[in-house]
Amino acid sequence: MNAAPEARLKITEIFLSVQGEAATVGFPTVFVRLTGCPLRCVYCDTAYAFHGGEWWTLEAVLAKVAAYGVRHVCVTGGEPLAQRACLPLLARLCDAGHEVSLETSGALPIEGVDARVQRVVDIKTPGSGEARRNRQADYTLLTARDLVKFVITNRDDYEWSRACVDEHGLAARCTVLFSPSHGQLPARELAEWILADRAPVRFQIQLHKVLWGDAPGR
Length: 218
Fold this sequence. Notes:
This protein is an alpha/beta fold. It is built from six helices and nine strands, in the order βββαβαβββααβαβα. Strands 3-1-2-4-5-6-7-8-9 form a nine-stranded mixed β-sheet. β8, α5 and β9 form a beta-alpha-beta unit. It starts with 7 loop residues before the first strand and ends in a 6-residue tail after the last helix. The relative contact order is 0.16. The mean pLDDT is 94.
C-alpha cells in the first residue's frame, strides 16, 4: 500500500517581525504568509502574495518557525484558508506550544480551525470592493477568543461597519477592531468618530507600518 502524500503548502515568506495588529500587538512574532487569495480588495497591501511562492512540507514550516525561538506565530496571506493544508498546519503549530493566530478574510469557512487558534476575521467593508464575500453565517461561530477587523476607508465605511456590529451583536461576541485604511483615511479622523459615538470597538493602527512603512516581510 502506498503511503499518503505528505501535506504541502505554497508559502510566500516566513519572517520574524513585531506583531502590528490585533490582540498580540507588539510581541515578536513569526509570520507564515501563504500564497494565493480569491479576493482582490482595493486596499490590499500584500498583492505580491497572490502568485508565486514555493512549496513547503509541514515539517519544513515547523522547523523554520521553531528556529526563530519565539512563542507567537501568525498564519496569514493572501488568504491562508484557501489552502487545504492550512488547517493541519495550525493544529501542528499549536501542538508545538506556540500561541497561534490566523488572519483570514472572512470569505471562507472558519469552523474547521483548531479551537486553540485565535481567529482574526477581516470583515470586508464596501470600500474594499469585496463586501459581498462576507460569510455572515460564520459570525455566530465567533467567541471571546476571536477578533473581527474592519478596515475603514471613509465615513460611509464607518457607518456601514457600525451598523454591522450592531446588527450581528459582534461586540458581545468578540473584540471588534476598527482600523483606518493606510493612506486613505487619517487615523485621527477615525479615532474622533469612534469617540464621538462611544462606539463599542477598539481603535487600532498598523504598528508595523508606523515602524517600517510598506516594506514587505516586515
